[in-house]
Every structure is written in C-alpha cells, then in structure tokens.
Specification:
Layout lengths: L8 E6 L2 E8 L5 E5 L4 E7 L4 H10 L1 H13 L13 E4 L2 E9 L5 E5 L4 E6 L5 H31 L5 E5 L6 E4 L4 E5 L7 H13 L8 H10 L3 H9 L4
Parallel strand pairs: 2-4, 6-8, 9-11
Antiparallel strand pairs: 1-2, 3-4, 5-6, 7-8, 10-11
Helix pairs in contact: 3-4, 4-6
Length: about 240
C-alpha cells in the first residue's frame, strides 16, 4: 500500500489495525474507536501528507489498542426477547418488564413505585412489534424532556436551534447540522441517566459556536457544564 495515494475514503492498516480513513475539509486529525467491536475511523485534513497521517496514527496506537481492549472486555448487550421478567432502563433507572396480552390499545405504563414497566399488547404480538411499541414510548419520553432542556440552555449558550429530532444512531449519541441549525439525539438516551441527555444536548448546542472538538470547544463545555467529562465517560462506557 502506498500511504501517499489516499483517496477521499480509504481502508488502511497501521500496526496491524485496520482503519477507515476519511480525508475531509477539517483543521485537525481525529481518531475515533467505536463500540462494540473497536472499529477505528480516522478523519484527516486534506492538506496532511500520507506520512503525516501515518505517523499521527502510529503515535496513538497504544491508546487505540486500550480502547479496543476496553470494548472487548465489556459484556455484550443481549438481544431483547420482550418477555416478562426482562430488565429495561428508563433514564438510568432499572425496571422489570411485565408483558400483558389483551385486545385493545398497545401501550406502556411505568410504575416507579414498583420498579415495573408494563407493556400492553394484543394477543400474539411478536417480539419485533413489542419492541416497536417500547421504542415509540422511549421516543415520547425524550420528547417530553428535550424542550425543557432547550429552554434552559439556549439562552445560556446564546444559540437557538431551528429544528431537532430523535432517531436511532449506531455510532453517535448526538449530531449537529451547523448550516441548518438542526440537532439529532440518539433514541438510546432515553435509557441513560437524565444528566447524559442534558450533556449531549449542551454538546450539540456548543457545536453551533464551534464545529470542531478543539480547545475552544472544550473551553465552552468547561464554562457551561463543568462536569461534562463525567457524563461523557458514562456514555463512553456504554455500548450503542
């Protein structure tokens, strides 16, 4: 492989590790190791030479391998069967699922005092449809929380979003389209501590001031949410 003949997107190998390399109009090189399998993606500025990119990755090999080892050591999320007795989480709190089959409206009832999550479905409803009911309920829980956080943080940060949405995301807890002023939040945040949802929302709002995860961005985060790294670390330990 000729390290100097990269295209916009390439698959390379450095130190025995397969890496997805993307050349982009950015200021600095960024290395990300994704759960659950430790996949590595490097985003690099167009102006860097192949040798510069190789050396930057090589200097971070130890860190990359540590991240991969951490993900490999994590217990894998078991496939949901959506049956009575399963454990599910709502904003960081554990609840036991109780499935009740009966004709009529399919819905979720949350009993905080009993740590119980009741799922009402029509008789014969399969696993996929049961999960769909739960995910739609999760979506509604997030929709109930996000406006309050936006009302709190937009005046503080001094930026307004034009639109926001919720969707399932494989590798990100949130994303921001700076040009359109739109943010997306991962549906899985409905399962995480509420502080993590707030952190991700603040993170994306700060991107409206600063596109890159650089010193300026971290300065904004330190100013607005001093404990942000604590919440980031909680999410880093979780598998998407």
């Amino acid at each position: 492989m000729n390290i100097n003949k990269f295209t916009g997107e390439s698959q390379i190998e450095v130190g025995g590790i397969s890496i997805q390399l993307l050349l982009k109009p950015i200021k600095s090189l960024r290395i990300v190791v994704y759960p659950p399998d430790g996949r590595v993606r490097v985003s690099a500025p167009w102006h860097l030479t192949g040798e510069d990119i190789y050396l930057a990755i090589f200097s971070r090999l130890s860190w990359i391998k540590q991240k991969q080892a951490k993900f490999q050591a994590m217990p894998r999320v078991q496939k949901r069967e959506m049956v009575t007795g399963e454990t599910h989480y709502v904003f960081g709190r554990e609840y036991q699922l109780e499935v009740i089959e009966r004709p009529g409206r399919q819905e979720i009832l949350l009993w905080e005092d009993r740590d119980r999550l009741q799922l009402f479905v029509n008789p014969g409803t399969d696993t996929e449809k049961r999960l769909k009911v739960l995910n739609e309920w999760y979506r509604e829980q997030l929709k109930g929380k996000i406006p309050d956080f936006l009302n709190k943080w937009q005046p503080i940060i001094g930026k307004q979003v034009n639109d926001w949405g919720i969707k399932k995301m494989k590798t990100q807890w949130g994303s921001c389209n700076i040009t359109k002023g739109r943010i997306w939040l991962n549906l899985e945040l409905a399962k995480k501590p509420i502080e993590c949802l707030e952190y991700v929302l603040v993170h994306e709002l700060v991107h409206l001031w600063e596109r890159y995860h650089n010193e300026k961005f971290r300065g904004y985060m330190d100013k607005y949410l001093p404990q942000w790294q604590q919440y980031r670390d909680i999410l880093d330990r979780e598998l998407l």
